[in-house]
Amino acid sequence: MPLALYTFGMFAKPADDAVNDGFYELNDPIFENVDKASGLIARSGYASDPGPNPWGAEVYPRFYQDRGDGWSPATLSLWTDLEALFAFTYFGLHSEALKRGREWFVSPDWPPLVMWWHLDRGYPTWSEGVERLEQLHDHGSKPTAFTFKEPFDQFGAKTKLDKSRIQALRT
Questions:
Q1: Helix (H, G, I), strand (E, B) or coil at 160
Q2: Distances in Å between the alpha carbon of 133 and those of 25, 83, 149?
Q3: Distance from C-alpha of 131 to C-alpha of 120, rounded to nearest angstrom
Q4: End-to-end C-alpha distance for the chain, whole angstroms
């Protein structure tokens, strides 16, 4: 059963403000890395960009505030397991971008990501990701919407990340 991930951030300034240039410089190299990442099954594209097909209409959670540009950075993807996703997220180029996030994004009152085990055939949709993120925000970690701090396994039981597997995936 694949692990779904939805992420959502909101620029502090309009998307085309020069303060976001560093974000854009890292964006394509990070997407190139994720496409080669161990454990990635697939990721959704965006209707407005070349690349993978989008998984439904892109929508945003209720936390979204339009900065006059009509969009906000978000991702939707499927992974084989928690450890592969953790290794990609917190090591390498992506971790460098996370460290710089305060340069570009508002400090969120919401969880920046949500995970869930995708039970259905096909791919999760953007609206499902939004629903899960809002569920996590409103009710905390549950088997249907969780974070790395309080993960659940495919059967709905609380679990812990396998640190030795993460270490192996880093190399």
A1: coil
A2: 27, 20, 15
A3: 15
A4: 25
CA distance 164 to 59: 37
Q: What is the pLDDT along the chain (171 residues), one digit of tens a residue?
A: 999 999 999 999 999 999 999 999 999 999 999 999 999 999 999 988 888 999 999 999 999 998 888 889 999 999 999 999 999 999 999 999 999 999 999 999 999 999 999 999 999 999 999 999 999 999 999 999 999 999 999 999 999 999 999 999 987
CB 103 within 8 A of CB 22: yes
Q: Say whether pTM exceeds 0.90.
A: yes
Where exactly are the structural domains of the chain?
Answer: 3-170
Helix 163-170 vs helix 82-90: crossing angle, to nearest 10:
50
Question: How far apart are the C-alpha atoms of 148 and 112, rounded to whole Å?
Answer: 11
